[in-house]
Amino acid sequence: MAAHLLPETLPAADMGGAALRAFFRIAEAWDLRMVDQRKLLGDPPESTFYKWKREQQGTVSRDVLERISYLLGIYKDLQILFTSEEQADGWVHRPNDAPLFGGRSAMDRMLSGNVADLYVVRQYLDAQRGWG
């Protein structure tokens, strides 16, 4: 007897809308400029970016999904680490003396355009939570 099972992971095409909606909520919470939003998503073409923003759905690449995944993790870590949303959302913009940031903000690091920088910020916050 065959059972109908859901795949363990959904194809990227099936996750695009939910990922984009989550990303744009985070971008609003963090008060990000459009140019910074595009940079965090890996610099998609302007027309694609504005279509995603307008429709809150679309097909995204695995790279974009990976970027959004790191940003979701960063957002979640901050909500856990700080007692208020204002503190959590503001942290990404505040200068940080940790060696990883060298006196600059986490957002400065994340805006380098490299997905690896999103990863290291996520790893740093996971360590602060005791998960690293």
From TrEMBL:
Residues 12-73 form the Antitoxin Xre-like helix-turn-helix domain. Pfam families: Xre-like-HTH, Xre_MbcA_ParS_C. This is DUF2384 domain-containing protein. Residues 78-130 form the Antitoxin Xre/MbcA/ParS-like toxin-binding domain. InterPro entries: Xre-like_HTH, Xre/MbcA/ParS-like_toxin-bd. One of its GO terms (molecular function) is DNA binding.
